[in-house]
From TrEMBL:
Key words, A-Z: ATP-binding, Biotin, Ligase, Nucleotide-binding
Lipoyl-binding domain location: 562-637
Natural source organism: Paucibacter sediminis
PANTHER family xref list: CARBOXYLASE:PYRUVATE/ACETYL-COA/PROPIONYL-COA CARBOXYLASE, METHYLCROTONOYL-COA CARBOXYLASE SUBUNIT ALPHA, MITOCHONDRIAL-RELATED
Domain (ATP-grasp) ranges: 114-311
Cofactor: biotin
An example molecular function term from Gene Ontology annotations: ligase activity
Pfam family for this entry, one: CPSase_L_D2
InterPro entries registered for this protein in UniProt: ATP-grasp (IPR011761), BC-like_N (IPR005481), Biotin_BS (IPR001882), Biotin_carboxylase_complex (IPR050856), Biotin_carboxylation_dom (IPR011764), Biotin_COase_C (IPR005482), Biotin_lipoyl (IPR000089), CPAse_ATP-bd (IPR005479)
Name of the protein described by the UniProt record: Biotin carboxylase N-terminal domain-containing protein
Domain Biotin carboxylation: 1-442
Amino acid sequence: MFSKILVANRGEIACRVMRTARTLGYRSVAVYTEPDAGSPHVAQADEALQIGSYLDIAAMLEAARRTGADAIHPGYGFLSERADFAQACADAGLVFIGPPAASIAAMGSKSAAKRRMLAAGVPCVPGYLGEQQDEATLSAEAMKLGYPLLVKAVAGGGGRGMRVVHRAAELAGAIASARREAESAFGDGTLMLERLITEGRHIEIQVFADARGACIHLGERDCTAQRRRQKVIEESPSPLVSPAMRAAMGADAVAAAQAVGYVGAGTVEFIVDAELKHYFLEMNTRLQVEHPVTECVTGLDLVEWQLRIAAGEPLPLAQQDVQFQGHAIEARLYVENPYEGFRPQTGRIAWWRPELALRPGVRIDAGVAEGGEVGPHYDAMVAKFIAHGRDRADAIRRLRAALADAPLLGIANNACFLAELLDHPDFRQARLHTASLDGWHLPAPEPSESDWLIAAALVLMVPTPAAPRPASVASFDLSLQQGEQRRQWRATVGGHQLRLQAGEQVHELSLLGQDAAGRWRISLDGLQRSVIALRDEQAGSLELAAGAAVFRFHEPSAFPEARDLNNPAHARAPVAGLVAQVLVAEGDSVAEGQALLSVEAMKMEMWLTAGRAGRVKTLHVGPRESVAAGALLVELEDN
C-alpha cells in the first residue's frame, strides 16, 4: 500500500496522473527543473521539489525520501522505460507504478524483445537482431533483407534513432545518424535492421495485467497518422479492424505481455500490411501518450487501473466484461511550424484558454499555461485534444471545432495542420499509411477576405497603451502585410465604427465589445462574428486565430533583424537549442547545399546547409554549445 505518489515527470502527463491521484485520495509530489519552475504540474501538486534533471535516478529517490513519498509514477518518456529505475525504486522500498524491472528489461531492447516474441509465437517482421554492430556486418545483413528497410535503435522509442533506407548508398549515413541520435537520446547506440513494410498501418493494443497472473486487452488504437515516425493523430477503434482481427491482435498482445511476466499498463505495437496481416513492432512498458482515446471508448480511467494494480488489487474487469462505445480521436498539439518544415518553436504562450473549447465529448489534456515559456529543452508537444462521439464522423467534427475554439497564440503550432488533416479525404477514408505525411509539403493557409478586413479593424480599433483607439478623424491610408501579400485601404474611423474602401469595394465594420473570455465581437457588413486575436505592438503584428494568420501593420524594414534572414552567406539557428555536430572549419570550401552543422532541440536534429558556394569565413560556435533562435552560426565568403 502507499499514500503519497511522486510523479517522476513533467508537463501534461504529470498533471494527468495527479488528477486521478487526487480523485483517489492520494497526495502527490512534483519534481521540476529550473526551466519548469512555473509549470502547471508544479502548482497542481501538493508538494514540489526542484531537481537537476528528469533523468537523474538518484535525485528522484532523494526527492521521494525528503517528501515521504512511498510510490513513484514514471509517466511516459524520461525514466519510464528504464529497468534500472524500476529496480532502484524497489531497492529503496518504493512502489514503482509500472511493470517489474525484469519485464522492462525484456522489452527494453527491441532486438531481444523480438526474439522473445518469436519464441512466444507472436508474428514479427523479418530483420537482423544480432550483436555484431560493425558497418560491414550491417551492410551484409541489409543485402540479405533487401531494400527498403529500417535502421532502428534497439533502445528507446518515439521514432528516435530510426531511419528509413531505400538503397544501399544511403545505409552508411543512416547507420551513423541513427546511432548518434540513439546515443544522445538513450545512451545506447546499438542498432537493428528490419524489413520495411511499405504502406503499413500502425495499430497498437492496450494491455493490462495484474500481479496475480490475469491479463486482458482493452482494444486497439490506430496510430497510422505519423510524421517522421512521430504520432500525430490516434483513434479508437481503428477504421480497418474487424472484430475477428481485434480478437487475433488482442490475443497476440496478451501473449506478448505474458511472455515477459508483465504487470500493469502496457502497449503492444503492431505494423499491419496491405493484406491486413499484423507483425509485432515493440512493446511500450508504460502508459502511452494516446491512452485517452481508450479511456473514452471503454469508459475506464487507465491511471486509476495503474494505481489499483500497483496497490496489489486484481484487474477490475475480465476480458468478456470490456465494452466499447462510440469512436474517439486524439490530436497532438505541437509547437512547430508545419509550413516551414515542421520546425520546432520556442517562446512565450500569449493566449491559451482551453476551457473555451470544452463541451460534452471534448477533453483537453495540457501541461502549459497562458504566459508560460516553451523552451528548447523538452518535447514539442504541449497539449492533446481528444474528442469522443457516437461514430467517427461525430468525433472528427467535435475535434475540429475544439481546435478552432481553443487556439494557442504567441508561438507557431500545428493546430491548422491538424484540422486540415482531420478533414483530408485520405484521413476521412482511412487511406493513410505510416509514411503518408512525410511526403506532404503544405502551403501556409491563405487568410480569407473577411480575415483581412477583421484584422484591419482590430489593428485600428482595439485600444492598447501604445495605440489608444483613435477618435473620429479624416480618412487615411492603412496597409497590412501577411506573408508575401499586402493589402491597402482608405480607412475612416468614427468611435467604434470603421469604413474600409479599396477601389470600388466598401466595407462597414463595427467593434461591438469583448466578452469575459477575451473574444472580440465584430460586425462585418452586418454579419457578426466572435474572434480571438493577439496584438503585439513591439513586433508590429496582429495574430488572428482564424487561419493562424499573422498580419504586420508596420513596415518589415522597421525590423533590422528581418533584413538578414534570407542572406545565403549566413547560416542561422532555426530554433534555440544545442549544437549537435559541426562538419566544417574556418577556411573550408563548401558547395551550395552542403551540410554545415546540426542543431538539436525538442528531440529533433536539424541540419543547416550552405545557401551558396564559398568558403567558411567565420564559425561562431562549436559542438555542444547552446544557441538562441536566429543566432548567426556560420558566415560564408567568396572563394
